[in-house]
Amino acid sequence: MLEIYQVSKSFPTPQGPLAVLQSISLNLAAGNTLALTGESGSGKSTLLHLVAGLDSVDAGTVRVGGETVTGRADADRARLRRTTIGLVFQQFNLLPSLTVGANLAFQARLCGRHEPAHLADLTRRLGLDGLLDRYPEQLSGGQQQRVAIGRTLAARPQLILADEPTGNLDEATGDAVLDLFLDEVRASGAALLMVTHSERLAARLGHQHHLSQGRLESRS
Ligand SMILES: Nc1ncnc2c1ncn2[C@@H]1O[C@H](COP(=O)(O)OP(=O)(O)OP(=O)(O)O)[C@@H](O)[C@H]1O
């Protein structure tokens, strides 16, 4: 589902180029889950952005569902994001003029996969039933995070990229949300790549990789 091959990325800084990722390779098959850990600033979000085609690699290739992300036109990468990839990023990017209910359904409607029963189940499991008529600005950070998760999962993406999806949640809610991710992956056969600072949550995923000084180390 996901093939990352010898990907490198650096950013310009006043002190010269900062090599954030150095020849990173990684494969993730459909139905598999992988936790990506690493210190703050080690390049975890950068790697997710490259996979999603939101930024360009300096070298190497990324393939999602057999399609090459790298070297494609922006419109093509946007299509891939819409149809195949589900993103839960640190900025939740909820639509401020839409209610929680409409935000939850937005992505699934956009890609023609709106299933009311599935969405109702996600809404219940994310504890959002009482909030459907509110607007994003009326929610706490953790509630916004859960809406962003529901919106992504409702669209049944084949590849889920989640950047600290439980970062704003207390431990019990974080555990319940991870249960939901894992159940959805089991049911849909999607692949899940999740960034987390929690070793405890990372251990619940099928594979664990650690990013340090630009290199990826497999821990299982
Ligand atoms: N657009 C950019 N321009 C310059 N430097 C950048 C840019 N984006 C990221 N960086 C730098 O690249 C490094 C990796 O950042 P990244 O956000 O990927 O880290 P991270 O591992 O996700 O961190 P955190 O756990 O704090 O979210 C950092 O040193 C950051 O300052």
TrEMBL record:
<feature type="domain" description="ABC transporter">
    <location>
        <begin position="2"/>
        <end position="220"/>
    </location>
</feature>
<keyword id="KW-0813">Transport</keyword>
<keyword id="KW-0067">ATP-binding</keyword>
<keyword id="KW-0547">Nucleotide-binding</keyword>
<protein>
    <submittedName>
        <fullName>ABC transporter ATP-binding protein</fullName>
    </submittedName>
</protein>
<dbReference type="GO" id="GO:0016887">
    <property type="term" value="F:ATP hydrolysis activity"/>
</dbReference>
<dbReference type="GO" id="GO:0005524">
    <property type="term" value="F:ATP binding"/>
</dbReference>
<dbReference type="InterPro" id="IPR015854">
    <property type="entry name" value="ABC_transpr_LolD-like"/>
</dbReference>
<dbReference type="GO" id="GO:0022857">
    <property type="term" value="F:transmembrane transporter activity"/>
</dbReference>
<dbReference type="GO" id="GO:0005886">
    <property type="term" value="C:plasma membrane"/>
</dbReference>
<dbReference type="InterPro" id="IPR003593">
    <property type="entry name" value="AAA+_ATPase"/>
</dbReference>
<dbReference type="Pfam" id="PF00005">
    <property type="entry name" value="ABC_tran"/>
</dbReference>
<dbReference type="InterPro" id="IPR027417">
    <property type="entry name" value="P-loop_NTPase"/>
</dbReference>
<dbReference type="InterPro" id="IPR017871">
    <property type="entry name" value="ABC_transporter-like_CS"/>
</dbReference>
<dbReference type="InterPro" id="IPR003439">
    <property type="entry name" value="ABC_transporter-like_ATP-bd"/>
</dbReference>
<dbReference type="InterPro" id="IPR017911">
    <property type="entry name" value="MacB-like_ATP-bd"/>
</dbReference>
